[in-house]
Amino acid sequence: MAAGGWPDCVQSLKGVILDMCGVLYDSGEGDGVAIPGSVEAVKRLKASNLQLRFCTNETQASREKFVAKLQRLGFDISVCEVFSPAPAAVSVLKHRGLRPHLLVHDGLLPEFDGVDKTNPNCVIIGDAAENFSYQNLNDAFRVLIGLEKPVLFSLGQGRYYKETDGLKLDVGVYMKALEYACDLEAEVIGKPSAAFFNSVLSDMGIQPQEALMIGDDLVNDVGGAQRCGMKGVQVRTGKYRPSDEKHPTVTADGTVDDLARAVDTILNQRGQ
Amino acid sequence: MAGRRALKAVLIDLSGTLHIEDTAVPGAQEALNRLRQASVAVKFVTNTTKESKRNLLERLQNLNFDLQEKEIFTSLSAARSLLEQRQHRPLLLVEDSALEDFTGIDTSEPNAIVIGLAPDHFNYQTLNKAFRMILDGAPLIAIHKARYYKRKDGLALGPGPFVTGLEYATDCKATVVGKPEKTFFTQALSDLGCCPDEAVMIGDDARDDVGGAQNAGMLGILVRTGKYREGDENKISPPPHLTCDSFPDAVEHILKNLL
User: Fold this and answer.
1) What tens digit of pLDDT does each residue of A1-41 get?
2) Last residue of a domain, one of A163, A189, A215
3) ipTM beyond 0.90?
4) C-alpha torsion B143→B147→B151→B154, nearest 10
5) Is A79 in the same domain as A196?
């Protein structure tokens, strides 16, 4: 590995960003299960002199509910450390004076409680799951097609994800459907958008080259972070596939078995 | 036209060309009769995802058009013939009114998806089912990919957005069977025993009717009725063989110049 690559790069690190699902825990029945060693790994990172933030594309629950779930799994984590697409969307709306029509999961609605939704002039879609009915999609379509300058925000752009009862279509599929129907391009909020990663960096007050992203999604976590100038390491947990290690366009700076190994390496290199 | 063979067949679009909703285009029935006296085959071709051939036939007969069911070729017919040709057993995501055009097709243990305009089927659960089948190798066949259509209560999503979403999810391409696909036109001509360069298409949609037909090697005549908007003839390259006021003028041109 060239100088400046993984794991040499950890000498100059000031902060670490962790993906959540597939890195900290696996989703499933109830709260899901913590990935072995990850609770301890988070604890060790927090005790180090590195800053730590969490970054997720979760849009089926509000951040409060989501963080409470992770606390029940044993993680030392608080809401202000977690970055997810919905709060980022709320700040974009505020900044641009937009009023959204929402097509999201019922569990996400509390995130938009304080937002003016009358006479909408944009549409936000998230992973709405069962709420992705023809009627609901058509309602979103009519808002867009009725606008002089239609604006569509998509909370992530995933194709599908795995649940205990099989693969499920993700928000990206419905984003593409609305893009095609209205002949427009959606603005993605969440990973892998640079604005999303940059908001995490600015919260830590550090430069991209001083930060490392650890995730299980090669394209959205690792690739997205690298495009912002950060280092990206992939863990072999969650949605990791062996084929990721010979991906045509994205090469991780490092690939490690799990979060516990990643944190071992980081802290050892830094002599902590 | 230099190098063209004698005309053997005329393909005619229905809605917007022969009739607008429940009203026939003035003189269209008479013009069709004149065309039938000439030595050319006639076929009626249309993109529909929910109307069976029988429904279409009834509507046209009520408007006093002289035609038979076997002369109608629709995007549903095209889907059916593709299924038969490849011996697929489809999961049919089409409205109930379209099902009779698939009578006799084996739909047990489906290994292909046919997707038309079917709001009742476009729920999360059914789309997940289709998605998983495609990941397992089932081909995706789209009746057509219209973005949206006009309903009495306003605009509504067509099948195209759902087809596009499934294509993105599975990283595959749907086979589209309706106009303006080349295979649609060649299939419509296949049982007439004539080649594309022996046929002409008359329609009101510059891209789907005229552009599609000309791309398949036929001549295309655009009529200024139905969905025609001024300047439509400039939207396709090469331009239509002819642009004229309505169906009777198109027939006049064929009888005078193409036979």
Assistant:
1) 444 678 998 999 999 999 999 999 998 778 889 999 999 99
2) A189
3) no
4) 170
5) yes
